């Protein structure tokens, strides 16, 4: 049932760029975008560099994260105007403490793609990112109803096991696309053994992307490239282009992944390629 060898699965590389997130700030890196204009500039630069998916959180101009559908709509439309064919993947994760319905408000803008978080996680201190099984089922059913392609975000092996139960029940449907988010406090680390464990635990027909947090971003990106997977980078996940040097932009992070792909002979997927790979063309 589970894929053990990716040697015959080498396809064009899908690059997702997580341009802002909900937690990082300009105090951490001045390149983190807040305003609509900054979001558009960040998305366009990443798109030009090779990203076919923009992972989108909404922020107000002061940096406050929000799931407000009007704000999301304004950002979404502005990015689409600048990059008409890019895939915009909205986050339903929101920020710690948001309610289920608050997080799902973004579906009211009818996105093409969204994230589906597949388990609860300790984020450090008293912060808990809550995703109960009822939450996951509710989110998946809402996305199924609205024909939104979801990417299943898994922070550890138990989250994958949860998806397998929901796949068996028919709640989570094809196409199965995973995002291994590794290196988050409270989740699995970003070591090679962890990546391989998750990779070998998903259904044979599934595709996957890897988001390495902080120092794990590029080591995991290269592992995923080598094993036929896909990659997420961006200032949400990592603020540095290399140790001690802040990234100047999201574009710079994408460009580094493109150079790793070139090193391993992986071509970069266009948005059209990405829709084919993720079976989104008929959605």
In short:
This protein is α/β, with parallel strands linked by helices. It is built from nine helices and 14 strands. The longest helix is centred in the N-terminal third of the chain and has 14 residues, at 36-49.
Any key phrases for this structure?
283 residues, alpha/beta, TIM Barrel, two-stranded antiparallel sheet, 9 helices, 35% helix, globular, disordered N terminus
Structure description:
With 283 residues, this protein is an alpha/beta fold. It is 35% helix and 19% strand. It has nine helices and 14 strands. The chain has helices at 36-49, 69-82, 100-104, 133-145, 157-169, 192-199, 217-226, 250-263, 271-277; strands spanning 15-18, 53-56, 58-59, 65-66, 87-90, 113-117, 121-124, 127-129, 149-154, 177-182, 207-212, 230-233, 240-242, 245-246. The chain has an eight-stranded parallel barrel with strand order 1-2-5-6-9-10-11-12, surrounded by eight helices. A two-stranded antiparallel sheet has the order 3-4. A hairpin with a 5-residue loop joins strand 3 and strand 4. Helix 1 (36-49) crosses helix 2 (69-82), helix 1 runs parallel beside helix 8 and helix 7 packs parallel to helix 8 (250-263). The protein starts with 14 loop residues before the first strand and ends in a 6-residue tail after the last helix.
């Amino acid at each position: 049932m589970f894929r053990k060898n990716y040697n015959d699965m080498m396809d064009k590389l899908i690059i997702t760029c997580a341009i802002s997130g909900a937690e990082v700030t300009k105090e951490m890196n001045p390149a983190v975008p807040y305003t609509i204009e900054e979001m558009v500039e960040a998305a366009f630069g990443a798109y030009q560099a090779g990203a076919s998916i923009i992972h989108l959180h909404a922020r107000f101009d002061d940096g406050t994260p929000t799931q407000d559908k009007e704000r999301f709509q304004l950002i979404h439309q502005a990015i689409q105007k600048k990059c008409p064919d890019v895939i915009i993947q909205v986050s339903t994760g929101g920020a710690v403490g948001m309610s289920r319905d608050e997080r799902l408000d973004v579906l009211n803008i009818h996105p093409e793609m969204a994230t589906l978080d597949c388990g609860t996680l300790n984020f450090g201190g008293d912060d808990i990112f809550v995703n109960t099984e009822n939450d996951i089922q509710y989110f998946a059913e809402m996305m199924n109803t609205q024909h939104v392609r979801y990417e299943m975000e898994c922070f550890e092996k138990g989250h994958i096991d949860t998806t397998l139960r929901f796949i068996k029940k028919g709640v989570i449907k094809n196409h199965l696309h995973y995002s291994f988010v590794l290196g988050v406090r409270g989740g699995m680390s970003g070591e090679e053994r962890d990546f391989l464990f998750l990779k070998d635990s998903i259904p044979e027909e599934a595709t996957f992307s890897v988001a390495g947090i902080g120092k794990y971003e590029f080591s995991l990106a290269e592992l995923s490239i080598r094993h036929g997977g896909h990659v997420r980078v961006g200032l949400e996940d990592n603020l540095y282009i290399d140790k001690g040097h802040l990234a100047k932009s999201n574009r710079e992070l994408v460009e580094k992944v493109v150079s790793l792909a070139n090193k391993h002979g992986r071509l970069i997927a266009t948005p059209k390629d990405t829709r084919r790979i993720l079976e989104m063309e008929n959605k």
